Amino acid sequence: MGKMPKQKVVSFPGTASQLVKQGLEQLKAGEKEQAVHVFRHALMHDSVNPDASYGLLLAYAEAGQMQKAAAWGEELLQDRTSDFLEILQVYVPVLAQLGRYDQVVETLDEVQETKSIPSHLREQFEELYTLAGGMMQTEVDTEQYNNPILEDRSSLPVEWEMILQMGTEEQKLNVLNVLRKEGPETWMSAIRELLARPETSPLMKSFLLLLLKDWQVEETIWVEKLGRKGEFAPSTLPALEESSSYKESSFLLDSSLSDKDPVLLQHAKELLQQLLLYYYPFPPSVQIEVLAAVLHFETLRQFEPLPDEQGIRDFYGVAEPGFKSMQQEYERIQGFIQEI
To answer: What InterPro entries does its record include (predicted)?
Structure first.
């Protein structure tokens, strides 16, 4: 295992095993950044603790720190002091998220030579191997498709659905941009399926619905998202800034921040747009006053360490339990709110 960087370390209470337990509890609670911090301290207590090593890998991945997760996973696989298969189950999907499909194929080529892999894991790895191989071919196809010399642009590469599930952020946005020019005729059934799949990210579902709105699709579409379900005619959906949630929240933020600090107001409205896009087409399931108060507080927290929570709650007329509940929800989804 690689050595932790030499630096002055502030003592962190508890043994490595206690810290591992604490880190796992924080991951379950959605406190991913804190979990990273705790697992690192566990390794300072015991630099070869396999549970702390795996916990740090998992925390990096859960917190969206994919580059760190890939580097740490590679280090663990080289040292072979942690559970090889346990590490692979996190490391290989991380490589796929980073678009490093050649490393996925190379790593799984080595894994296939291992005889002791349980059947269910072997099936999972074989599926990832096939998907990564397809993605590598798709990158070649997409380059050819985007070549201005080519005249035949009548269809996207057949693996575009795979890109929207496994591709990098840039690849996904590129496919969405090409789809926007293509029109709905060829792609409606596949988009319907993506909108109904639980594993499609909330933000991707929002983009697909806005794409259908751009296409002025009038037929109803079934959407399952964040534990909520419903049918929508995309052409009738309001634009984000035309929704009642945005208008009412924006009005409250204007009333509290426009005269005091226009810069803070702009930041608060950016947070509001991010949050509403995450939920779209459903509105947040909280009172607008609570939503505005939390966004006001979270905006201030970016610029000062201890905002006046009581004063903010009093201004919006919000009780502490509702405020705390929405604040916990906001902190829980921070790792996913911009994940396509």
So the answer is: TPR-like_helical_dom_sf (IPR011990)
Residues 194-217 have pLDDT tens digits of 898 888 889 999 999 999 999 999
CA–CA gap between residue 40 and residue 77 (Å, rounded):
18
Contact 246, 276 (CB under 8 A): yes
Residue 254, Cβ density class (10 Å: 0-12 exposed, 13-18 middle, ≥19 buried): middle
Same domain membership, residue 279 and residue 180: no
For residue 277, what are the domain limits?
240-333
Q: Strands 228-232 and 221-225, how do they pair?
A: antiparallel
Reported pTM: 0.58
| Total domains in the fold of the chain | 3
229 and 263 within one domain: no
30-60: per-residue pLDDT in tens? 888 888 888 988 888 888 889 999 999 999 9
Q: Nearest-CA neighbor of 283 among 322, 236, 215, 237? A: 237
Residue among 332, 337, 340 at smallest CA distance from 35: 332
Q: Is the dihedral of CA 297, 302, 303, 307 positive or negative?
A: positive
Looking at residue 44, the DSSP 8-state letter turns out to be H
Q: By the 8 A CB rule, do 119 and 94 touch? A: no
Q: Which residue has 């040292």 as its token pair?
A: 79
Using DSSP, state whether 225 is helix, strand or coil.
strand
Angle at the Cα of 211 (from 154 to 247), degrees rounded to 5? 165
Amino acid at 103: Q
Helix (H) or strand (E) holding 208: helix 202-214
**Torsions phi, psi for 22 (to 5 deg):** -65, -40
